[in-house]
Protein backbone atom coordinates (compact mmCIF):
# COMPACT_ATOMS: atom_id res chain seq x y z
CA UNK A 1 0.00 0.00 0.00
CA UNK A 2 1.48 3.32 -1.04
CA UNK A 3 1.13 6.40 1.14
CA UNK A 4 1.56 10.13 0.62
CA UNK A 5 2.45 12.88 3.07
CA UNK A 6 1.31 16.45 2.53
CA UNK A 7 2.52 19.40 4.61
CA UNK A 8 0.52 22.62 4.33
CA UNK A 9 1.93 26.04 5.18
CA UNK A 10 3.33 29.00 3.31
CA UNK A 11 6.08 29.18 5.93
CA UNK A 12 7.28 25.80 4.63
CA UNK A 13 7.30 26.68 0.95
CA UNK A 14 9.10 29.94 1.68
CA UNK A 15 11.79 28.12 3.61
CA UNK A 16 11.03 29.95 6.85
CA UNK A 17 10.87 26.69 8.81
CA UNK A 18 12.22 23.20 8.15
CA UNK A 19 9.67 20.48 7.43
CA UNK A 20 10.66 17.99 10.12
CA UNK A 21 7.12 16.61 10.34
CA UNK A 22 7.25 14.90 6.96
CA UNK A 23 10.52 13.10 7.70
CA UNK A 24 9.20 11.86 11.04
CA UNK A 25 5.88 10.65 9.62
CA UNK A 26 7.64 8.93 6.73
CA UNK A 27 9.87 7.01 9.11
CA UNK A 28 6.87 5.97 11.20
CA UNK A 29 4.87 4.84 8.17
CA UNK A 30 7.84 2.89 6.83
CA UNK A 31 8.29 1.19 10.18
CA UNK A 32 4.59 0.28 10.15
CA UNK A 33 4.97 -1.40 6.77
CA UNK A 34 3.77 1.27 4.34
CA UNK A 35 5.64 2.50 1.27
CA UNK A 36 5.80 6.29 1.14
CA UNK A 37 5.87 7.37 -2.50
CA UNK A 38 5.24 11.11 -2.21
CA UNK A 39 6.19 13.84 0.25
CA UNK A 40 4.91 17.27 -0.73
CA UNK A 41 4.57 20.75 0.74
CA UNK A 42 2.20 23.43 -0.52
CA UNK A 43 1.27 26.96 0.59
CA UNK A 44 -1.89 28.12 2.35
CA UNK A 45 -3.91 28.46 -0.84
CA UNK A 46 -7.35 26.84 -0.70
CA UNK A 47 -7.62 26.04 -4.40
CA UNK A 48 -4.19 24.42 -4.45
CA UNK A 49 -4.95 22.46 -1.29
CA UNK A 50 -8.23 21.12 -2.71
CA UNK A 51 -6.61 20.10 -6.00
CA UNK A 52 -3.65 18.43 -4.26
CA UNK A 53 -5.86 16.47 -1.86
CA UNK A 54 -7.91 15.10 -4.74
CA UNK A 55 -4.82 14.18 -6.75
CA UNK A 56 -3.14 12.38 -3.85
CA UNK A 57 -6.35 10.54 -2.93
CA UNK A 58 -6.62 9.16 -6.47
CA UNK A 59 -3.01 7.96 -6.58
CA UNK A 60 -2.53 6.54 -3.07
CA UNK A 61 -4.26 4.33 -0.56
CA UNK A 62 -3.35 6.49 2.45
CA UNK A 63 -2.67 10.21 2.85
CA UNK A 64 -1.42 11.98 5.98
CA UNK A 65 -1.73 15.78 6.05
CA UNK A 66 -0.27 18.24 8.56
CA UNK A 67 -0.74 21.95 9.09
CA UNK A 68 -3.41 24.59 8.61
CA UNK A 69 -5.73 23.60 11.47
CA UNK A 70 -5.06 26.62 13.68
CA UNK A 71 -7.18 29.65 14.65
CA UNK A 72 -5.95 32.23 12.13
CA UNK A 73 -7.36 33.26 8.76
CA UNK A 74 -4.58 31.51 6.84
CA UNK A 75 -5.50 28.15 8.39
CA UNK A 76 -7.59 26.79 5.53
CA UNK A 77 -7.06 23.03 5.67
CA UNK A 78 -10.41 22.03 7.18
CA UNK A 79 -12.36 24.08 4.64
CA UNK A 80 -10.25 22.68 1.80
CA UNK A 81 -10.73 19.11 3.03
CA UNK A 82 -14.51 19.61 3.12
CA UNK A 83 -14.48 20.96 -0.43
CA UNK A 84 -12.25 18.13 -1.69
CA UNK A 85 -14.54 15.53 -0.10
CA UNK A 86 -17.68 17.24 -1.42
CA UNK A 87 -19.19 17.96 1.99
CA UNK A 88 -19.99 21.07 4.00
CA UNK A 89 -18.04 22.54 6.90
CA UNK A 90 -19.93 22.16 10.19
CA UNK A 91 -19.20 23.06 13.79
CA UNK A 92 -18.52 19.96 15.85
CA UNK A 93 -19.91 20.51 19.34
CA UNK A 94 -17.79 17.82 21.00
CA UNK A 95 -14.66 19.35 19.51
CA UNK A 96 -15.81 22.83 20.57
CA UNK A 97 -16.30 21.64 24.15
CA UNK A 98 -12.82 20.07 24.22
CA UNK A 99 -11.29 23.28 22.88
CA UNK A 100 -13.17 25.37 25.46
CA UNK A 101 -11.94 23.19 28.31
CA UNK A 102 -8.38 23.37 27.02
CA UNK A 103 -8.43 27.15 26.61
CA UNK A 104 -10.08 27.87 29.94
CA UNK A 105 -7.75 25.47 31.77
CA UNK A 106 -4.96 27.85 30.75
CA UNK A 107 -6.77 30.81 32.22
CA UNK A 108 -7.72 32.24 28.82
CA UNK A 109 -11.04 33.27 27.28
CA UNK A 110 -12.51 31.62 24.19
CA UNK A 111 -12.56 33.74 21.06
CA UNK A 112 -13.67 33.34 17.46
CA UNK A 113 -10.30 31.92 16.46
CA UNK A 114 -10.57 29.15 19.02
CA UNK A 115 -14.12 28.37 17.90
CA UNK A 116 -13.02 28.19 14.26
CA UNK A 117 -10.89 25.15 15.10
CA UNK A 118 -14.11 23.20 15.77
CA UNK A 119 -15.34 23.75 12.19
CA UNK A 120 -14.74 20.38 10.53
CA UNK A 121 -15.92 18.56 7.41
CA UNK A 122 -19.35 17.00 7.87
CA UNK A 123 -19.05 13.32 8.71
CA UNK A 124 -15.36 13.52 9.62
CA UNK A 125 -13.99 11.34 12.39
CA UNK A 126 -12.62 13.72 15.03
CA UNK A 127 -9.12 12.96 16.33
CA UNK A 128 -8.72 14.39 19.87
CA UNK A 129 -5.68 16.52 20.63
CA UNK A 130 -4.47 15.79 24.16
CA UNK A 131 -1.60 18.31 24.09
CA UNK A 132 -3.09 21.23 22.13
CA UNK A 133 -6.33 22.93 21.21
CA UNK A 134 -6.79 22.11 17.50
CA UNK A 135 -8.37 18.68 16.92
CA UNK A 136 -7.42 16.55 13.96
CA UNK A 137 -9.80 14.60 11.81
CA UNK A 138 -10.00 11.88 9.19
CA UNK A 139 -12.24 11.74 6.15
CA UNK A 140 -12.26 9.63 2.99
CA UNK A 141 -11.97 11.02 -0.50
CA UNK A 142 -13.13 8.25 -2.76
CA UNK A 143 -11.74 5.03 -1.31
CA UNK A 144 -8.72 6.67 0.28
CA UNK A 145 -8.64 7.68 3.97
CA UNK A 146 -6.99 11.04 4.68
CA UNK A 147 -5.77 11.97 8.15
CA UNK A 148 -5.37 15.64 9.07
CA UNK A 149 -3.13 16.64 11.97
CA UNK A 150 -1.85 19.96 13.41
CA UNK A 151 1.50 21.23 12.19
CA UNK A 152 2.95 21.72 15.68
CA UNK A 153 5.43 18.80 15.92
CA UNK A 154 4.73 17.94 19.57
CA UNK A 155 0.99 17.78 18.94
CA UNK A 156 1.33 16.01 15.61
CA UNK A 157 3.58 13.25 16.98
CA UNK A 158 1.30 12.47 19.92
CA UNK A 159 -1.81 12.41 17.74
CA UNK A 160 -0.18 10.29 15.03
CA UNK A 161 0.96 7.74 17.61
CA UNK A 162 -2.27 7.68 19.62
CA UNK A 163 -4.89 8.33 16.96
CA UNK A 164 -3.59 7.46 13.50
CA UNK A 165 -1.39 4.39 13.88
CA UNK A 166 -4.06 2.26 15.60
CA UNK A 167 -6.45 3.05 12.73
CA UNK A 168 -4.07 2.29 9.85
CA UNK A 169 -2.04 -0.65 11.14
CA UNK A 170 -4.62 -3.28 10.12
CA UNK A 171 -4.38 -2.11 6.50
CA UNK A 172 -0.59 -2.15 6.31
CA UNK A 173 0.91 -4.70 3.89
CA UNK A 174 3.08 -5.82 6.82
CA UNK A 175 5.73 -7.33 4.58
CA UNK A 176 8.68 -5.01 5.25
CA UNK A 177 11.19 -4.51 8.04
CA UNK A 178 13.93 -1.94 8.52
CA UNK A 179 17.01 -1.78 10.74
CA UNK A 180 18.57 1.64 11.25
CA UNK A 181 22.26 1.55 12.13
CA UNK A 182 23.91 4.69 13.55
CA UNK A 183 27.53 5.36 12.56
CA UNK A 184 30.24 7.91 13.25
CA UNK A 185 33.80 8.03 11.96
CA UNK A 186 33.45 7.44 8.21
CA UNK A 187 32.01 9.71 5.53
CA UNK A 188 29.08 8.64 3.37
CA UNK A 189 31.23 7.63 0.38
CA UNK A 190 33.49 5.45 2.52
CA UNK A 191 30.51 3.83 4.24
CA UNK A 192 28.97 3.10 0.85
CA UNK A 193 32.26 1.72 -0.43
CA UNK A 194 32.58 -0.57 2.59
CA UNK A 195 29.07 -1.95 2.02
CA UNK A 196 29.35 -2.51 -1.74
CA UNK A 197 27.74 -5.77 -2.88
CA UNK A 198 25.51 -6.38 0.14
CA UNK A 199 22.30 -5.81 -1.80
CA UNK A 200 23.44 -8.29 -4.42
CA UNK A 201 23.99 -11.07 -1.89
CA UNK A 202 20.87 -10.39 0.19
CA UNK A 203 17.80 -10.73 -2.01
CA UNK A 204 14.97 -8.41 -1.03
CA UNK A 205 17.28 -6.01 0.84
CA UNK A 206 18.03 -2.41 -0.09
CA UNK A 207 20.41 -0.06 1.70
CA UNK A 208 19.70 3.60 2.26
CA UNK A 209 21.89 6.32 3.73
CA UNK A 210 21.07 9.45 5.69
CA UNK A 211 23.78 11.99 6.46
CA UNK A 212 23.33 14.30 9.42
CA UNK A 213 26.72 15.82 10.02
CA UNK A 214 28.95 14.26 11.17
CA UNK A 215 26.97 11.03 11.38
CA UNK A 216 25.78 8.62 8.69
CA UNK A 217 22.77 6.37 9.22
CA UNK A 218 22.59 3.11 7.30
CA UNK A 219 19.02 1.90 6.73
CA UNK A 220 18.75 -1.81 6.00
CA UNK A 221 15.31 -2.24 4.46
CA UNK A 222 13.90 -5.63 3.53
CA UNK A 223 10.72 -6.78 1.81
CA UNK A 224 9.48 -10.37 1.99
CA UNK A 225 6.42 -12.58 1.82
CA UNK A 226 5.45 -11.36 5.30
CA UNK A 227 6.92 -9.30 8.13
CA UNK A 228 8.72 -12.23 9.75
CA UNK A 229 10.47 -13.10 6.50
CA UNK A 230 11.37 -9.44 5.97
CA UNK A 231 12.65 -9.17 9.53
CA UNK A 232 14.91 -12.20 9.05
CA UNK A 233 16.27 -10.76 5.79
CA UNK A 234 16.96 -7.36 7.36
CA UNK A 235 18.63 -8.79 10.45
CA UNK A 236 20.92 -11.06 8.43
CA UNK A 237 21.95 -8.19 6.17
CA UNK A 238 22.46 -5.83 9.10
CA UNK A 239 24.75 -8.40 10.73
CA UNK A 240 26.99 -8.23 7.67
CA UNK A 241 26.80 -4.43 7.63
CA UNK A 242 27.95 -4.30 11.25
CA UNK A 243 30.72 -6.80 10.57
CA UNK A 244 32.03 -4.68 7.69
CA UNK A 245 31.83 -1.34 9.49
CA UNK A 246 32.98 -2.60 12.90
CA UNK A 247 32.91 -0.18 15.80
CA UNK A 248 32.05 2.70 13.50
CA UNK A 249 28.52 1.49 14.24
CA UNK A 250 27.76 2.93 17.66
CA UNK A 251 24.05 2.14 18.00
CA UNK A 252 20.74 1.25 16.41
CA UNK A 253 17.33 2.83 15.96
CA UNK A 254 16.85 6.02 17.94
CA UNK A 255 20.01 5.58 20.05
CA UNK A 256 21.80 8.94 19.96
CA UNK A 257 25.57 9.32 19.85
CA UNK A 258 25.90 11.23 23.13
CA UNK A 259 23.46 8.86 24.79
CA UNK A 260 25.75 5.98 23.86
CA UNK A 261 28.82 7.89 25.04
CA UNK A 262 27.10 8.36 28.39
CA UNK A 263 26.28 4.68 28.51
CA UNK A 264 29.93 3.78 27.88
CA UNK A 265 31.19 6.13 30.60
CA UNK A 266 28.56 4.83 32.99
CA UNK A 267 29.52 1.21 32.27
CA UNK A 268 33.06 1.89 33.53
CA UNK A 269 31.84 3.68 36.61
CA UNK A 270 33.66 6.84 35.53
CA UNK A 271 32.84 10.30 36.78
CA UNK A 272 33.49 12.96 34.14
CA UNK A 273 34.45 16.64 34.04
CA UNK A 274 34.69 18.92 30.99
CA UNK A 275 36.99 21.77 30.01
CA UNK A 276 35.82 23.53 26.84
CA UNK A 277 37.37 26.42 24.97
CA UNK A 278 36.46 26.61 21.26
CA UNK A 279 33.29 24.51 21.72
CA UNK A 280 31.95 26.98 24.26
CA UNK A 281 29.81 24.55 26.28
CA UNK A 282 28.53 22.55 23.31
CA UNK A 283 29.79 19.25 24.72
CA UNK A 284 28.07 19.83 28.04
CA UNK A 285 24.85 20.66 26.18
CA UNK A 286 25.09 17.52 24.06
CA UNK A 287 25.66 15.24 27.05
CA UNK A 288 22.93 16.77 29.21
CA UNK A 289 20.26 16.34 26.54
CA UNK A 290 20.04 12.93 28.19
CA UNK A 291 20.18 12.03 31.90
CA UNK A 292 23.81 12.48 32.95
CA UNK A 293 23.81 13.39 36.63
CA UNK A 294 25.10 9.95 37.62
CA UNK A 295 28.40 10.41 35.75
CA UNK A 296 28.81 14.07 34.72
CA UNK A 297 30.14 16.17 37.60
CA UNK A 298 30.60 19.51 35.87
CA UNK A 299 33.21 21.56 34.11
CA UNK A 300 34.16 24.95 32.78
CA UNK A 301 34.09 27.03 29.62
CA UNK A 302 37.57 28.54 29.66
CA UNK A 303 37.73 30.79 26.65
CA UNK A 304 40.39 33.23 27.83
CA UNK A 305 43.91 32.17 28.77
CA UNK A 306 43.40 33.75 32.19
CA UNK A 307 40.44 31.44 32.81
CA UNK A 308 42.48 28.41 31.79
CA UNK A 309 45.10 29.39 34.36
CA UNK A 310 42.83 30.45 37.23
CA UNK A 311 40.21 27.73 36.94
CA UNK A 312 42.21 24.76 35.68
CA UNK A 313 45.76 25.52 36.71
CA UNK A 314 47.13 25.58 33.15
CA UNK A 315 50.69 26.89 33.37
CA UNK A 316 51.33 30.40 32.09
CA UNK A 317 54.69 29.14 30.82
CA UNK A 318 52.89 26.47 28.78
CA UNK A 319 50.53 29.06 27.32
CA UNK A 320 53.39 31.40 26.42
CA UNK A 321 55.60 28.64 25.06
CA UNK A 322 53.08 26.69 23.03
CA UNK A 323 49.97 28.84 22.70
CA UNK A 324 46.43 28.13 23.81
CA UNK A 325 45.85 25.89 20.79
CA UNK A 326 48.39 23.16 21.42
CA UNK A 327 48.74 19.59 22.59
CA UNK A 328 50.39 20.75 25.80
CA UNK A 329 47.55 23.09 26.78
CA UNK A 330 44.90 20.53 25.85
CA UNK A 331 46.58 18.00 28.14
CA UNK A 332 46.87 20.45 31.04
CA UNK A 333 43.23 21.49 30.60
CA UNK A 334 42.02 17.87 30.79
CA UNK A 335 44.25 17.06 33.73
CA UNK A 336 43.34 20.32 35.46
CA UNK A 337 39.58 19.86 35.24
CA UNK A 338 39.97 16.25 36.36
CA UNK A 339 41.93 17.42 39.38
CA UNK A 340 39.68 20.38 40.19
CA UNK A 341 36.44 18.40 39.97
CA UNK A 342 37.99 15.29 41.56
CA UNK A 343 36.79 12.95 38.82
CA UNK A 344 38.07 9.83 37.12
CA UNK A 345 38.14 11.46 33.70
CA UNK A 346 38.78 14.95 32.41
CA UNK A 347 38.00 15.97 28.86
CA UNK A 348 39.22 19.07 27.04
CA UNK A 349 38.96 20.87 23.70
CA UNK A 350 40.91 23.89 22.47
CA UNK A 351 41.11 25.19 18.92
CA UNK A 352 40.45 27.82 16.29
CA UNK A 353 36.83 27.54 15.17
CA UNK A 354 37.05 30.54 12.84
CA UNK A 355 36.24 32.29 10.70
CA UNK A 356 39.20 34.40 11.92
CA UNK A 357 42.16 33.77 14.17
CA UNK A 358 44.12 31.34 12.04
CA UNK A 359 47.75 31.57 10.95
CA UNK A 360 49.92 29.66 8.50
CA UNK A 361 51.22 27.56 11.38
CA UNK A 362 47.85 27.16 13.09
CA UNK A 363 45.08 27.46 10.51
CA UNK A 364 41.36 27.93 11.09
CA UNK A 365 39.86 24.56 11.98
CA UNK A 366 42.86 23.31 13.98
CA UNK A 367 41.61 21.65 17.16
CA UNK A 368 43.35 19.76 19.94
CA UNK A 369 41.39 17.52 22.27
CA UNK A 370 42.43 15.42 25.24
CA UNK A 371 41.09 12.82 27.65
CA UNK A 372 42.82 12.41 30.99
CA UNK A 373 41.83 9.10 32.57
CA UNK A 374 43.25 6.54 35.04
CA UNK A 375 45.44 5.07 32.32
CA UNK A 376 47.04 8.37 31.31
CA UNK A 377 46.33 11.37 29.10
CA UNK A 378 45.58 10.99 25.39
CA UNK A 379 45.85 14.04 23.11
CA UNK A 380 44.81 14.22 19.49
CA UNK A 381 44.44 16.96 16.88
CA UNK A 382 43.04 17.63 13.43
CA UNK A 383 42.31 20.52 11.09
CA UNK A 384 38.55 20.33 10.55
CA UNK A 385 37.00 21.82 7.43
CA UNK A 386 33.83 23.88 7.29
CA UNK A 387 32.15 26.85 8.87
CA UNK A 388 32.53 27.77 12.54
CA UNK A 389 29.59 25.67 13.73
CA UNK A 390 30.74 22.67 11.72
CA UNK A 391 34.21 22.88 13.26
CA UNK A 392 32.70 23.05 16.75
CA UNK A 393 30.42 20.08 16.14
CA UNK A 394 33.22 18.03 14.56
CA UNK A 395 35.48 18.77 17.53
CA UNK A 396 32.80 17.81 20.04
CA UNK A 397 32.18 14.50 18.29
CA UNK A 398 35.90 13.76 18.04
CA UNK A 399 36.61 14.10 21.73
CA UNK A 400 33.42 12.28 22.73
CA UNK A 401 34.28 9.39 20.42
CA UNK A 402 37.75 9.21 21.95
CA UNK A 403 36.11 9.10 25.38
CA UNK A 404 33.70 6.38 24.21
CA UNK A 405 36.53 4.26 22.87
CA UNK A 406 38.62 4.62 26.02
CA UNK A 407 35.65 3.69 28.21
CA UNK A 408 34.80 0.63 26.09
CA UNK A 409 38.40 -0.45 25.50
CA UNK A 410 38.07 0.00 21.75
CA UNK A 411 40.99 0.86 19.50
CA UNK A 412 41.27 4.44 18.32
CA UNK A 413 40.25 5.27 14.79
CA UNK A 414 41.90 7.96 12.68
CA UNK A 415 39.47 10.67 11.66
UniProtKB/TrEMBL annotation:
InterPro entries: CinA, CinA-like_C, CinA_C, CinA_KH, Competence-induced_CinA, MoaB/Mog-like_dom_sf, MoaB/Mog_dom
Gene3D superfamilies, per the entry: 3.30.70.2860, CinA-like, MoaB/Mog-like domain
Lineage start: Bacteria, Pseudomonadati, Myxococcota, Polyangia, Polyangiales
PANTHER family: NICOTINAMIDE-NUCLEOTIDE AMIDOHYDROLASE PNCC, NMN AMIDOHYDROLASE-LIKE PROTEIN YFAY
Pfam families: CinA, CinA_KH, MoCF_biosynth
Family note: Belongs to the CinA family.
Source organism per UniProt: Polyangium mundeleinium
HAMAP family: CinA_B
Domain MoaB/Mog positions: 4-170
Name the record gives this protein: CinA-like protein
